[in-house]
Amino acid sequence: MAVLLDGVFVRRWIRELLERKRDREDDYDIAIKRYLARKPRKIDWAGGRRPSRDELYVRWPAAE
Predict the structure, then answer these.
(1) Cα–Cα distance between 17 and 6 in angstroms, integer?
(2) Residue 13: which residues within 8 A CB-CB, separation 6 or more?
(3) What is the pLDDT of residues 17-38, one digit of tens each?
(4) Annotated domain spans of the chain
C-alpha cells in the first residue's frame, strides 16, 4: 500500500486497472458476437418429443 501513496504510482495503477477492464469487455464483446453469429440448430429430442418440465427439473422434497 505504501507504493500507492505516491501520486505517480496511483495514476499508473488506475490506468492499468482501466486497461484490464477494457480488455475484458472487449473479450466479452468478441465472444458474444461470435456466439450470436452462429446459425441456429435444430434440437434432436430423444424419442421425438420435448421433455416435460418435471423431466427437466428434479424436484427435491422440502427440508423439514
Answers:
(1) 17
(2) 4
(3) 899 888 888 888 899 999 999 9
(4) 1-39
